[in-house]
Structures
1.
Amino acid sequence: AGSDTALAPIDVGPGEQVNMNLMADDPTFRDLIRNLSITVLATEPGLGINTVNQNDLMKGAGEGLLSEQDAVAALRSDLGYAQSRIEQANARNGAAKTSFEIARTTLLASDPYDTATRLQEAQIQLESLYAATVRTSRLSILRFL
């Protein structure tokens, strides 16, 4: 069903856009399809076209197809350029994502040795606190005297 209006430019990165203004109603595609259709119809036995007219139709369609080669190559080149820009932006975005993930992991990750050392220190302090609590609970005036 298509549309006769071109797509808006597509953002592929910061400050970078790709224009996708290639549409099926492009004159190059229309000429290409017309010449291919003439080629197919010229050899259709049900149409009853004589050999001389078939040859004339095929010659004209062939010349049209040959003349469209440069235009089709230009369209393919434009499409390939847009694809390469999208791929480059995709690679840059992927590299940036990986770099941000590494930075995030570095910021949030803890050093296992440092963590184990601090845990052991906390355990020793807790045991010392329990030992002091036990000693103070056994104190009485009678034992003191």
2.
Amino acid sequence: AGTPIERVHRLRASVRQRLLAASPEGSHGGLMVALAIGDQSGIAPSDWEVFRRTGVGHLVSISGLHVALVGLFCGGLVSVLWRRLPALALRLPAQKAAAIAALVAASAYALLAGLGIPVVRAWLMLVVAVWVMLSGRAVAPSRALAIALLVVLVADPWAVLSAGFWLSFGAVAVILASVGGRVRAHTGWQGAVRIQLVISVALIPLLLAQFQSFPIVSPLANLVAIPLVSFVITPLVLLALPWPHALLLAPADVAAGWMMAALRWLATWGR
């Protein structure tokens, strides 16, 4: 009963309750709920202070990175399975099947996350990317980013007043500028570290303009927190969503504990 949006909100409330109930005693359940459905009400004020001092508060908000990770994971899984089934591959190329799966998974996650403005913005960017891939057109990444920017502005003209708008598109532009035009691109953990360092340095002027402050330990804190949140904690929490249980959430909670211990230590530098 109820409208589709009401049913989504009931589902989100149910997921929140189940996650908190299944979280180990004394755990970082509030952080895991925030990464799963975007509800930050369970994060302790002391943790928010640590996030502020280290400049990693953006990581506990469901952002374009999280939406992209869900899409990439599901799309990659479908691609691997699709290539092993010749009958399906002959009907539809694995690359296009993976793109469709990525969009469907990201759309479901965006609904579960509550369709906040940053999530919708990231979803629109993914829609543009999938459309470009399915159309078979050769579109430069910079042009795809420009199309996504236009779509976002048409859907939400007031987005230009949001700091998140400039930070998200600025980060993507920095990534494209840092990896484009190179004969031998960095891959693996070296590439991830390099991109993170470039983003951390390049966005300092924008952060200063938006917030009039920039924690000196932010680049180092982000270097620690981004891999843990993006590639360990969030995927483990999302994998546990269908069957929330203490045993399934324990690895994510342990990783969250390591991250918070490191951030608290770094936060003392910013006093």
